[in-house]
Amino acid sequence: MPYLSETITAEGWGLSDMSQISDPAGAGRWLQDPVHRAGLLENAHRQLRFFDRTLRDDGGFDVMNHDGTPLPRAGQELHYTTRMVHAYVLGRAIGHPGADRMIDAGMAFLWTRHRDAEHGGYLWSVDETGVHDGLKLAYGHAFVLLAASSAKLAGHPEADRLMADVAEVLDRHYWDEAAGLHREEFARDWQPVSTYRGMNANMHSAEAMLAAFEATGEAHWLERAGRVLEVFTDRMPRANGWRVPEHYTEDWQVDPDYAGDPMFRPAGTTPGHSLELARLLLQHWDLSGRPVGDVPDRARRLVETALTDAWRVDGGLAYTLKPGGEVDIGDRYWWPVTEGIGALASLLKLEDRDRDETWYRRLWRFADARLIDRERGGWYPELDDDGAPEGRQFRGKPDIYHALQAELYPLAPGLSRQVEGLGAL
């Protein structure tokens, strides 16, 4: 498949003045605008070229500084390895050169380095000496399932082995059948380390189970994803002003006073997760045959509440909110913007509404002006109060996963089977 990047130059895309990604020439909707679509594809290739350099001789992946040089190693985390596999399956779908090499490396690293041959399951972080952090998180295991499912869609020969292994671990240690949700965390030898329960790990488990259903057709993945999504896109938001509490006690009661790791478990609610949940809810509904019900309305309530609460007057989305919707942490990260783009693209594919189009354009304009590194590739993950790249919370450019999905999912023909659909671009 010929790359659009071969025929569309940076000047032709308008990278220097944002004119193409944020203001396509046509007067129609951006999802159908050929210049906007070509710009998204070109930026996806630019990102992939940047992250190509992360692969090390030992098969691991470095985290890259803003300028594309490797940062000092501090242990390779499970979610980084797995997301690289998923991202390069998307890259493979658009014909990115060398994608198979990256997928192969990530799959091998998961099986030989992250997989705990002694106790089972997957280690959170590994380094040259072996185990860097032996914690076993539902969050990380969800991404192992996502990587295996994506690799299976790409026809990788080791995907079935990885999927069977992580599915057994999830079922044995994490799945709480009575609650219809996943438990959170264990020590390396599977001793409980806390009674904490979290929304974030369950949201990503739903994402992974939807991918597993798409890869295998096995209905139990769809059923379990639906149970998780019912809690966090219906029961909890209805009781909390269409915001989604992040933190819970062992018996799944909201824990409003909890505050943990500022990156993964900040206090309050996280509007970016509401946007992500809305997209996953629509994906599940689509894979379920679009049954009659209120799913599109619920997705819209989640999206509109999050955007209204979190949009800052100087652009970008605040990271966290207090329970009533007041901004708590106003820091601006890249990933809530990417999830807003994905959610709005899904809504626009269902129904042509001016308000959704306005928000879709607003988020892309902000991303193009402040987050996308048009010279070197990748997105800056964090901004200071003046809108310049910052590094308080994130080292370098730690992630391709969120931004690549924002660039490619709007191009997919529907709400689901995105990896397969991208092959028609």
From TrEMBL:
GO MF annotation: an example: isomerase activity
GO BP of this protein: carbohydrate metabolic process
Highest taxon in the source lineage: Bacteria
Alphabetical keyword list: Isomerase
Entries under SUPFAM superfamilies matching the protein: Six-hairpin glycosidases
Coiled coil spans: none
Family: Belongs to the N-acylglucosamine 2-epimerase family.
Record-given protein name: N-acylglucosamine 2-epimerase
